[in-house]
UniProtKB/TrEMBL annotation:
Biological processes annotated in GO: mannosyl diphosphorylinositol ceramide metabolic process; sphingolipid biosynthetic process
Comp. bias regions, Basic and acidic residues: 460-482
Domain Phosphatidic acid phosphatase type 2/haloperoxidase as annotated: residue spans: 198-361
Protein location: Membrane
A GO CC annotation given for this chain: membrane
Name of the protein in question: PAP2-domain-containing protein
Transmembrane residue ranges: 20-38, 68-89, 95-124, 172-193, 200-219, 316-333, 339-361
Source lineage: Eukaryota, Fungi, Dikarya, Basidiomycota, Ustilaginomycotina
Keyword Transport: no
Length: 482
């Protein structure tokens, strides 16, 4: 259930955009970031966190208690087998985590990221497992499945076309973007996503990787680089990992970073499932669901190279979801080209990511996106709706969850008609007492999500309130971490 009103964090007033910021894309982005900054909590009161925990604890369900029991069990097991740092120095890890979640200023980041921290802890600690307790390493399973299902070893075929240019093209997403991508997605969700979307991402992304590492530890499989280096001879845990194709990047730039990292990896035989592919799939799913943006190129004047090609009065509309999935498939190719994964590993990682995404996608997130948010996953929206999304989160977080979910009605065709002129083009408007979101600028395509009328009671409001209550009971931990 929602926290008592006196325990909730209420965002501050909107911050004005500095006058020196140029209008257009940059001003929209700066305004959204400033709106998001007002939602950050700066309190350091431990008593406030304890009061929130006491209010949240009686509302937990059996499903929640089971989930947290599993997480605590994995954390204790990881701490027990961890060999370095040794006891008692390793006790600093839980001590620092507990301190972080007791301070509201840090708990707003550490609580949503708890599944991710658990994954990192287990991944690191798994390297200290005794070889005598580890299962058999499967060397021929993946190449055999690859040949049976796809008719050939796809990774081997892609590797034959090696070239320094291709090496760099594979290194950029695999060795750089892969590690920075989750931070960018989480930041965009915080700025533009609906309330709870960051917690949703932390749970889905964290459990994707946690379950993936558990599979890799309990079902160890040799990657393509092992087949190329050792053939199909049996593997053992005394063998080190390999950077494979990334060794060429080290040689190109005169470094040893990837060689040292992959040679000493805690899980060298973790080909299946591919967590690189799983992470890219997860990021593409989140961006496609929460940011279905449409970019318009050209001004319709018919001037310039693009204008002459399009013709007078025409614009080029691009659905950016294409680029989300282009990145995902780009990384799929990288994992095979660099000899780190078979195609079957990518399928496993992608399926695991999709399962995790829809497992943690609750009714509250669907309700926000499909009913009350200016962007909707069913159709692309103009870039200017991102500013409306940032404003909407402020409106929703300045009131209790019950009020926010029950008071806002469905968008109607009347609202869409009001947002459009008689000729079907969008009309220029402003946020006023009749709308929660401002109408987009003239010339932009506007869907029915462009404006939301003032709260009015009704049947739909009652339905929304009941949906919110049921979902809050099912996953009330999010309210404590708010």
């Amino acid at each position: 259930m929602p926290l008592p009103a006196h325990l909730e964090h209420v965002p501050g007033p909107p911050l004005p955009v500095p006058s020196w910021v140029p209008k257009g894309f940059l001003s929209v982005l700066v305004a959204a970031i400033l709106n998001a900054a007002t939602r950050l909590e700066t309190s350091t009161s431990v008593s406030l966190s304890l009061a929130r925990f006491k209010a949240w604890l009686p509302t937990t369900t059996r499903k929640e208690r089971f989930k947290f029991a599993i997480m605590i069990t994995i954390a204790l097991f990881s701490m027990f087998i961890m060999g370095s740092p040794g006891f008692p120095l390793k006790l600093a890890i839980p001590a620092l985590y507990i301190t972080a979640i007791l301070l509201p200023i840090t708990s707003q980041f550490f609580l949503p990221a708890s599944p991710i921290f658990l994954w990192l802890l287990f991944y690191y600690s798994s390297g200290f497992l005794s070889p005598s307790t580890r299962p058999h390493i499967w060397v021929s399973v993946l190449p055999t499945l690859e040949t049976i299902w796809y008719g050939a070893n796809i990774s081997d075929i892609l590797t034959r076309a090696g070239h320094p240019v291709l090496d760099v093209l594979a290194w950029i997403p695999y060795g750089i973007v892969h590690f920075a991508g989750p931070f960018f997605v989480a930041a965009f969700l915080f700025v533009f996503g609906p309330p709870g979307s960051v917690k949703f991402f932390g749970s889905a992304f964290g459990f994707l990787n946690l379950v993936g590492v558990i599979i890799q530890v309990t079902f160890p499989t040799a990657p393509p680089w092992y087949e190329l280096r050792e053939g199909l001879t049996p593997a053992n845990y005394s063998m080190k990992g390999s950077p494979a194709g990334l060794a060429r990047i080290d040689a190109l730039f005169g470094g040893h970073g990837y060689t040292l990292t992959f040679t000493n990896a805690p899980v060298p035989f973790g080909a299946f499932p591919s967590l690189h592919a799983g992470s890219a799939t997860m990021e593409a799913l989140f961006c496609s669901y929460f940011f279905p943006i449409q970019l318009s190129l050209g001004d319709g004047s018919g001037r310039g190279l693009l204008g002459r090609w399009l013709g007078k009065g025409n614009k080029l509309a691009i659905d950016v979801r294409i680029f989300y999935w282009m990145y995902a498939f780009w990384l799929y190719w990288c994992t095979m080209y660099l000899q780190h994964h078979y195609l079957v590993d990518l399928v496993g990682g992608g399926c695991l990511a999709t399962l995790s995404f829809y497992l943690f996608l609750d009714d509250t997130q669907r309700h926000y996106m499909e009913e009350y948010y200016p962007t909707n996953p069913s159709a692309p929206a103009p870039f200017t709706t991102l500013m409306q999304a940032s404003q909407s989160q402020l409106h929703l977080e300045r009131r209790s969850e019950d009020v926010a979910m029950s008071a806002l009605p469905r968008r109607s065709s009347d609202v869409e008609a009001a947002a459009r002129g008689s000729n079907g083009a969008a009309v220029k408007g402003r946020e006023d007492s009749e709308t929660l979101f401002a109408v987009t600028e003239e010339g932009e395509e506007v869907a029915s999500r462009s404006a939301t009328p003032k709260p009015v009671p009704g049947k739909e409001a009652t339905k929304a309130k009941e949906s919110s209550r049921q979902d809050a009971e099912r996953d009330s931990f999010d309210d404590w971490g708010a």
